[in-house]
Amino acid sequence: MDDYRIVNRVNWDERVPVHVASEFYAVDQLAADPTALTSVVRFDVPRLGDINGQRGVHLQCHIGTDTVSLARLGARMTGLDFSGEAITAARRLAAQAGVDADFVEADVYAAVDVLGAARFDLAYTGIGALCWLPEIRRWAAVVAALLAPGGRLFLREGHPVLWTIDERHTDRLVIGYPYFETREPIVFEDPTTYVEGDARLEHAVTHSWNHGMGEIVSALLDEGLVLTQLVEHDTVPWEALPGQMEQTGELREWQLVEHRERLPLTYTLQAVKR
């Protein structure tokens, strides 16, 4: 199973320059405008509340756009990602943006070893992160160990029901992938990425897993965290189901064109360490 890290890392290393150049991540705008926040973090702000002065860790931070945004809200941020290319890009973005944030290259399961235990008031994880991890209970243990007493997990993720939908069907919702965590990964071969453009990736294979909502909540509860919020949303930041979605609202999130009530697309979960 350890091979999944190598397979996924080379894929994400290759995505980095494509994502840095994309309108989706808007890196140049974020660097140039000291008031700019990513649309993802702007969506989170009403539930995040005041994080000024908090010690924050952004797990699986990718190229650091959300990490920089959280730092602009006043948190003292550390970003962690397993892709060396992504960490290099994140450090460059923070320097260009004039934002004081630290970035560490490490696998998320090794976060406590490299960052230390009970150091953070806020553990933040964004959309499209948990699916790259084979064991949700190991992740929950890492989160609990990183948080100081009274510290908070803030998670907005793709809904596990969304991850079951086979996006190749453009005229109906078809369940094609596992809902519950499986021992073996879901293997995809796709030379594209989710940003605009026609870039083709040489390393096209990825290994991923789904984790049911009950599995995620139970893992956190078993680590002694107290669930304080669980909100399901009918929007998602990218066109997750091509041919069935449209953009809406100030943040230009994507929603189903017809009968939005059929499918949860993302969720926000918050939990506090006792």
From the alpha carbons, calculate the radius of gyration and give it in angstroms.
Answer: 18 Å
Low-confidence stretches: none
Let me know the largest β-sheet: 7 strands, mixed
As for the number of domains, it is 1
* Percentage of β-strand residues: 15-25%
CATH class membership:
Alpha Beta
Shape: globular
Kindly summarize this structure in a few lines.
With about 270 residues, this protein is an alpha/beta fold.
Descriptive report:
- There is one protein chain.
- Helix 1 (3-20) runs parallel beside helix 5 (84-97) and helix 7 (136-146) packs across helix 9.
- It contains nine helices and eleven strands.
- It has a seven-stranded mixed β-sheet with strand order 3-2-1-4-5-11-8, with helices on both faces.
- The chain is 32% helix and 24% strand.
- It is α/β, with parallel strands linked by helices.
Topology record:
Blueprint: H1 3-20, H2 27-32, H3 39-48, E1 55-59, H4 65-72, E2 76-81, H5 84-97, E3 102-105, H6 111-115, E4 120-125, H7 136-146, E5 147-158, H8 160-164, E6 186-189, E7 205-208, H9 213-222, E8 225-233, E9 245-248, E10 253-256, E11 266-273
Parallel strand pairs: 1-2, 1-4, 2-3, 4-5
Antiparallel strand pairs: 5-11, 6-7, 8-11, 9-10
Helix pairs in contact: 1-5, 7-9
Question: What features would you highlight for this structure?
Answer:
32% helix, 274 residues, Rossmann fold, alpha/beta, 9 helices
